[in-house]
Each structure stands twice: as structure tokens, then as C-alpha cells.
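Structure first, sequence second, as always.
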């Protein structure tokens, strides 16, 4: 079974919305305008690219990333990976042609089937609604969280607010950096 990894920049209060400057959110761009940049705090991002064998995202994240990431040198490896977009509304004619193989999955059952295929880790960037569905369906195996020392209040959150049984996580890697960022790599305990 393939490992499904959710990776996110989150504030201390769990907000993941618009970390890179996406429009429409009042605190947009909070990752780099509010906290001093230290390259070593972002080493996990390079490791994710090296270790991932596929990308999974929701429609909104695909529509945000696909016009930009294919031409960004820092995301060059992602261009070569197969991409899967979970959406009930996206159509093949709306997929970009310069970002490699992209497959549309229509539901979480198709994600579960993808996890059963041969191959290595599948990485999920962004995709708040998709993360909620994946977490509720028990499909996430690991979280890579870069936690910023910020309280943003309102905004999309990484974790769903579904009333459910306790989900235990096991901390398998952690680090703290001089700028206050914390890396937490957590496996979902089954």
C-alpha cells in the first residue's frame, strides 16, 4: 500500500489558508512576510520532492498550482510526477498541458484504490477540503507540518471539525528553528 502524506504550512492555531500570497484571504502570504526566512527550516520540502512518486490535490489547489508550479525551478521534480486531482467538476479540457500526466479522480473511493497500487509515497499539498475528506475517510498516513509561530484566527484549517473518535498520531521527526518554526512529522496510528 502506498503512503499518503499530507504536507502543509500551518499557523499555531491550525490555519492553512493562503500561505503563499493567494488572493482573497486577509492574511494572505503569512509564511514569508511575517516570519524570517531560514533555508534549513524548509529542507523538508526538498525531501518531499525527492521521496514522492505522485501528487494528489483537490480542484481548487490544482487550479492555483497548475498555472505557476510547472515553470518554477524549485518544483522541477514535481513536473515529472503523475498528478491526481480529486474533483467532481473538473474536466480533462481544463488540465494544463505543461505539467505532465494528470488524472482526474471523482471520489475518495478512487483515492483509496490509488493507494492500493504499486509505487511510493503520494504527497498532498494544500487542498483543505480534500484533506478533510481524506482524514475523515482514514486515508492519510502521515503529516508533514511546518508550524509557524502565528495566530491567524479565521481561515481554512487543515484538520476537519467532524465529531469523531480520537485519532492518535505518533511524532516520528521534529525540529525547532531560530525563527520559531517547528517541523512535526506525524504518522497516523491505526
Amino acid at each position: 500500500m502506498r503512503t499518503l502524506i499530507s504536507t502543509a504550512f500551518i499557523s499555531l492555531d491550525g490555519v492553512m489558508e493562503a500561505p503563499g500570497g493567494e488572493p482573497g484571504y486577509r492574511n494572505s502570504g503569512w509564511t514569508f512576510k511575517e516570519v524570517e526566512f531560514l533555508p534549513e527550516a524548509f529542507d523538508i520540502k526538498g525531501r518531499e520532492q525527492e521521496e514522492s512518486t505522485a501528487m494528489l490535490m483537490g480542484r481548487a489547489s490544482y487550479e492555483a498550482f497548475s498555472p505557476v508550479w510547472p515553470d518554477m525551478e524549485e518544483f522541477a521534480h514535481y513536473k515529472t510526477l503523475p498528478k491526481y486531482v480529486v474533483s467532481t467538476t473538473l474536466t480533462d479540457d481544463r488540465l494544463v498541458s505543461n505539467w505532465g500526466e494528470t488524472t482526474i479522480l471523482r471520489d475518495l473511493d478512487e483515492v483509496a484504490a490509488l493507494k492500493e497500487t504499486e509505487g511510493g509515497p503520494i504527497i498532498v499539498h494544500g487542498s483543505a477540503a480534500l484533506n478533510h475528506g481524506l482524514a475523515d475517510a482514514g486515508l492519510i498516513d502521515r503529516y508533514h507540518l511546518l508550524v509557524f509561530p502565528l495566530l491567524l484566527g479565521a481561515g481554512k484549517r487543515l484538520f476537519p471539525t467532524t465529531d469523531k473518535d480520537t485519532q492518535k498520531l505518533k511524532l516520528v521527526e521534529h525540529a525547532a528553528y531560530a525563527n520559531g518554526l517547528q517541523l512535526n512529522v506525524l504518522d497516523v496510528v491505526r
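Margin note: The two ends are 14 Å apart (CA to CA).
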